[in-house]
Amino acid sequence: MTRPVGARPRGRPTRPNAGPALVLCLLLAACGAKQARPAAAPEPEDGASLASAAIATGPEACGNAIDDNQNGLIDEGCGLALGLVQFLAGWSAAKADVDLRVVDPNGDLIEVGRVARSGLTKDRDCPGRSECQGKNLENVYLAEGEPLKGEYRLRLRLESLGGETPPIHVTLGARLGGTSRSYDVELETPESEREIRLKF
Ligand SMILES: [Ca+2]
Ligand SMILES: [Ca+2]
């Protein structure tokens, strides 16, 4: 392993000319995170070499935190709130409790039921609420104002397995700076975490 990262990007950036450069670094957090898998380097955001960015993998599928049709929107048409900034974590292990903790460039933790100064809010906390109904998605999105520039820290934490068999596979979709990407993350043991930092 040459790069200490815990997630691998999937999909391709979309609408590469629509925003500033997206700088990505992936960090292993503490607390029992297992050995990371190698990851492909992020594709350059030069806006000139992305002719294939419009290639879609299929029609938009709901609940997978992936921009399947490569239109820049993650899980659109699925009843989820969307925003110019959006971070969406999805996992299929119904009883596993995974938390998506987003800290915005102001250093504010984005919480359910409240809009932060950055305009971000969170509208789902799974699997704890009945709205999840076995489809575990946590959705952080820009509800008000313009996207705030700076670094966004996205932490995925496995609170409990809930009887599910590890590892818990989590997909994290991120829309920021006019691009959408998805990352695969595996969480092995309770309290293990991965942190992804996105800057634009
Ligand atoms: Ca889409
Ligand atoms: Ca999708």
Q: What can you see in these coordinates?
A:
The protein has one domain. It is globular. It contains no helices and 10 strands. By secondary structure, it is mostly beta strands. 0% of the residues lie in helices and 34% in strands. The strands form 2 sheets. A 6-stranded antiparallel sheet has the order 1-9-8-3-6-5, with no helix packed on it. The protein has a 4-stranded antiparallel sheet with strand order 2-10-7-4, with no helix packed on it. The protein binds calcium ion (CA) (2 copies). Residues 60, 67-69, 71, 73, 76 line the site of one calcium ion (CA).
**Rg (C-alpha, Å):** 16 Å
Low-pLDDT regions: 1-5, 14-54
Share in β-strands: 25-35%
Query: Taking strands numbered 1, 2, ... along the chain, how are they ordered across the largest sheet?
Result: 1-9-8-3-6-5
Shape: globular
Number of separate strands: 10
What series of H and E elements makes up the topology? EEEEEEEEEE
Distinct ligands: calcium ion
- Helix segment tally: 0
Could you tell me the mean pLDDT? 78
Count of discrete structural domains: 1
Helix content: under 10%
Question: Structural class of the helix and strand makeup?
Answer: mainly beta
Distance between the termini: 27 Å
- The quaternary structure here is single chain
